[in-house]
Amino acid sequence: MTGLQMRSTGCCQFNPKGRNKMSRPASSPKPPYYAVIFTSIRSEGDNGYSDMAERMEVLASQQPGFLGVESARDQNGLGITVSYWESLEAIRLWKAHAEHRIAQIKGQDEWYSHYTIRICKVEREYSFETQPDK
Amino acid sequence: MTGLQMRSTGCCQFNPKGRNKMSRPASSPKPPYYAVIFTSIRSEGDNGYSDMAERMEVLASQQPGFLGVESARDQNGLGITVSYWESLEAIRLWKAHAEHRIAQIKGQDEWYSHYTIRICKVEREYSFETQPDK
Questions:
Q1: pLDDT, greater one: B8 or A90
Q2: What is the ipTM of this complex?
Q3: Less crowded by CB within 10 Å, the N or C end of chain B?
Q4: Omega into B16 within 30° of 0, i.e. cis?
Q5: Is residue B108 part of a domain?
Q6: Which of A113, A120, A128 sits opposite B130 (nearest CB)?
Q7: CA dist., res. B24 & res. B47, Å (int)
């Protein structure tokens, strides 16, 4: 997400309300679509981070053009969240969302010592899944 | 990476030998450049995964066009590795690397129950870092 690391919920499958979360890579539409890679280092302490992150996750999943999200935070503290969107405009609108803007400011003030956000166009995608008989 | 989840080493800074790893988002050149988002679920047991992952990490960092990597595996088992490359050709050459090909096959046979690989063009990037006086 742009400015707020979601909780490490694994990921949610692609659906407009962000329900049916599963700990597996998110399914996705045929490329092209867009990805926001948010890599972060948390500051010490929660400081309201968990509650706001949960709220932002719900809000994001309700945005037009939201496709899904995958998130993991390593034991060394590095977090990677990749959210997927139908268009750059959908990403722009979410970044500009009033409540999200407040979270972005709080993120810089209290939650993160460092983050990098990369806006990407997903050009190709392929998956592997173990077959039931394996 | 294409077919092999690297160890959860946080990330390494951008440099051709993949040294100077730090638990922070990777620095990167001015876009455009390319990202490979590799999201995976590990199978049970190590089965030689750690050794091969370490070997692949070294090999990848020696490939032409390698820029860096960020990796995290969540406690729920979802892993996200994002590797960065100068070009699609650099990604293609790494995917086709003979030893990496073997690892990709072993990954499907033994290490992963599911993975998704997304090839992306990084179009924009911006970062935040806490100032020393904060």
A1: A90
A2: 0.80
A3: C
A4: no
A5: yes
A6: A113
A7: 29
